[in-house]
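The following block was generated as part of the benchmark described in Methods. Ligand: 2-deoxy-2-amino glucitol-6-phosphate.
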Amino acid sequence: EAGDFLAEKGPYPHFMLKEIHEQPGVAARVLGSWTARGDGTVTCDAAGLGWARVPRLTIAACGTACLAGQVGKIWLERIARLPVEIEIASEFRYREPPLPEGGVTLVISQSGETADTLAALRYAKEAGQRTLGLVNVPTSTIAREVDVALATHAGPEIGVASTKAFTAQLLCLLGFTVMVARQRGTLDEADERRWIGALSSVPRLIAETLAAEPAIAAAAAGALAPASDAIFVGRGLMYPLALEGALKLKEITYIHAEGHAAGELKHGPIALVDATVPVVALAPSDGLFDKLDSNIREIMARDGRVLLLTDAAGAARLGEAAWRTIVLPDCEPFLQPFVQAVAIQLLAYHCALARGTDIDQPRNLAKSVTVE
Ligand code: AGP
């Protein structure tokens, strides 16, 4: 299963950079497995669970895997109209939540060994849920204990900061959403074919985003690396991505970073904003852009310096006012997480490089957290 992705750095100075650059290939591999029949339909081992009758999906995971789950929740609710609860695995079982009859629990884990995620899985099984696992290591404990294991196909991920496993989880979740939506009747056959066309554009979109690396590296070194604090904001699908941007940054650069839903800023976090705290705005020109635009202007009115991650249309509208603007590829709104994920990974990586931290082995962190 490790396939073409070897656990060696090759010409790259760090595993993290190598793994970031592997993402177009990983996405192509994920697509190959999800569209293996080649007949315009999504193939998925979880199809037998009868999704038309599932009352609710519970997703439990930790860290970056949990943030992939948050993106998945939005896709599943919007596209498949499936109610989804997202749970931080370390909190889930201690709350002793009731789980619905006929419900399904999905755990997401790169390693398949995270203690809290495994415990969440066992809790769900005891509560009579059918279980699914989205796991990168196929021989792991979680992959063995779930009813149905779905592989993420990312190959070995060595850098402590998760990158290619995250985008692979996202792509699997979107493929899964299409399958569930077909069964629930919110997409028809023609829609499914169109979705597969959209999914097929993801490797190219990621490759186009990687082409923005020099601009992202310059902003990271010049604007973000000298800061002690940073704020990431986004709305809709970009909210979990803002959380992921802040997580990546703090993990490998040790800059204090917070991610916020942009509309929540005025309820407290905007008090932190001044000219010394860069605000990274994940701002594709989607249906929420107008709302985000006014949030960004509120930040700028308080001397906030906004680093805008946007597309050509967003740059035309807000680029002049922003402190720095990085123009990313245009794509349809549901695919934006792939573009922004790669941008925030590169931003964190180049910031860490400028600060001289130990990128692949950041302090205090382990790749796989097998203790509570
Ligand atoms: C991400 O960059 C992290 N190092 C961390 O949040 C990780 O995603 C989390 O510990 C979950 O790990 P898992 O996917 O192996 O379960």
